[in-house]
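Narrative summary of target 7.
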Amino acid sequence: MLKKKSNWVELLEQEIQKAEKSEFVWEGNNCALFYCNCVLAMTGFDLGEWFRGKCSTEKKSYLALRKYAGTLENVIEKICEEQGFPEIPLLKAQRGDPVLLKGDDDPMTESLGIVSPNGDIVARDTDQKYGIIRVPLSVDLVDLGCRAWRLNG
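Modeled conformation, tokenized:
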């Protein structure tokens, strides 16, 4: 089980602020590694170690995901299961919890985000060159099939 540092909320906010000012790049600054970087800051444990260095392009990123577990959704399911993060109802997600955002039935529109200290969902967006997107935690996301897990610790 991962253990959050005593100042994890501050560290999470710092990681989000860093992402807001940085450019989206497949290697190191994509949606999956954004979440992993947040967890690394909060706990000191790197959930994305298996993915780093394997995603220099969009194609390589999707190939690495497919090799590990299939789609981004399959990958987050596998990681959460391995780490003991139980799936929770989306509207019960709290600060630091991972959230899988879905735009439609196309797995290419999925994005891995995190609940911010302010309670909204923060994620990287491949359509946005700089920064992050902020999405209110709402019933609309439930209707889209978005999912959440509890980051214990």
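Residues 8-149 form a domain with the endopeptidase fold (from Nostoc punctiforme) fold (CATH 3.90.1720.10).
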